Amino acid sequence: MTSKRAQNLSFSVFSWAVLGILTAYISVIILTLLLRVDGSSLWDTLLSGRSLSTIRLSAVCATIASVLALLFALPIGYLLARKSFPGKNLVDTLLDVPIVLSPVALGTALLILLSSEPGKFFEENIASFIFTTRGIVLAQFSIVVALAIRSLKAVFEQIDPRYEDVAYFLGSNRWRTFLTVTLPLARTGILASFILAWARAIGEFGATITVAGAVRGKTETIPSAIYLGLASVDIQETLAYVLLLIVVAVTVLLAVRLFTARAAL
Amino acid sequence: MISISGVRASFGSFRLENVSLDVREGEHFVLLGPSGAGKTLLVETVLGLRRYCEGQVVVAGRVVRGEPVDSVPISYVPQDLAVFPHLSVRDNITFGGRARGMDRRRTSKKVEELSGLLNIASILDRRAPSTLSIGEKQRVALARALFIEPRVLFLDEPFSSLDYYIKRQLIEKLREIKDTLSVTVFQVTHDHEEAFMLADRIGVMFEGRIVQVGTPLELQRRPATLEVARFLLAQNIFDGEVVEADLGSDRAKTRVGELLFTSTASNGLSRGQKVSVVIRPEEIHVIRPDRPLGPKVQENLFTAHIESRIPIPAGYILVTHIEGLGGPVEIHLSSCAFDDLGLESRSTVPVSLKAESLWLIPR
User: Which residues of chain B neighbour A263 with C-beta distances below 8 Å?
Assistant: First the structure.
């Protein structure tokens, strides 16, 4: 009995120790940033016209990319959660590719697509993406749509299909059932998916810089600004943007946690 | 109204095996079976929520094949009730009305009718169904299902998680509704009492097969197989051999142990056939010494030695021993009869294993 108790105790100590080490590691990273930053220079950087334009561009592009991703992810996530069809595993795997692929690789693939003959035709006659803000949205969308599909599929899987069956027999067609039963039941999950997609989009760098570049005042997002700041050895400017992204990340994670906790009540 | 013929289907490792049955218009049909018998799968197949590979399901004249029927109003109350958590009680009930474009006046009138019928007027304006008790949720789900005036109402274990008192109340209510609204009901349950109290006919299902369909009385007195008899709690099952079978008068004599039993149904058996002799504990008549024997209890008279008595809510189970029979014989007795017979202080009691209640099942 004593030996079992000792083993239980050692397991608890081990778990707490691992938790403590990792929490300390992340705290030390943030703390080091805070210690290195110069308060007055931080505000000067963040409130400068260039920064505000970078922040605005990042927020607008991330919002558009996330809304577009959600519009695709809602029906696709629902279909993957509810239906079985031939080749579902293949489609499911294909849709996951942007999640596991390096963003730079995805950006490169997009660039090659846009440089192909049909891509060039599209670029020249319909809409241009390379080195434009549209390119930022396209790159961010390509990354976050897979994330949104994955999270919305999980959200729909948690909703008992019985609700939809009952609604159907009560006289509701599939559209009405989706809009009046499924979507309201999934609203917390949809909101959480949107916030996560937005946070991922605003921090996206690899695909964005490959497709849209990092042209100051034109296609410069917050991560691109960090990259440019490092390249020009402007540590205070870089730190200001890094801290801004950390604040965004913490706020988003807290918001998601609060939403999901409230929904679980 | 519902016709299922030769339906075979497989769902993972589970199969529906050649299921055939008919549910008549206006009938209350109960599909009874233990958990895991495939009752819910059969209901879902009939509703068109699952596909079958052979046979045919017809509901209200339309063939169902993996697509829900919508040619006639059908309501479905699943086991977990599926009361919409994001809608108020009133909006839950009127959901079908909105989906079918029912006007406001008719909607309010129907809500009033149903809330009166199901005693839910006081909770109509409750905004969060999560605050309802399980009994209230059952009523709301039933009201929502009845709102569209269905021709067929499918109920999957509707009273499974209710305590006894509320369950009895709702069973009474469902009988009343069935009479008032003359709807065809197809209900699934594992609860014998619920099935016997509500059903016009019962179908017994084991491991994806329908083993017997009959009225409650037929099932109680004439179980088709030993497994049906055991499932319906016929505790007294003995091995015997037919020694005399008169097909003309439909009477048989069967030897069990050293005793000879008369039964009023020969069940098409022949002399020398090995059988299981079944009698339900409540069908054994305890004879009052001070009263003359009625015509139905003049055969199969024995003395039962009381070995123990087990209290149950309705009275007692007497576990007795009849010399020459072999196994124990259980007798159900009401508290009132138990007191009248003075069984507190007695160790033996004369009994009749009524000939008309004795049933023979070929082994």
Answer: none
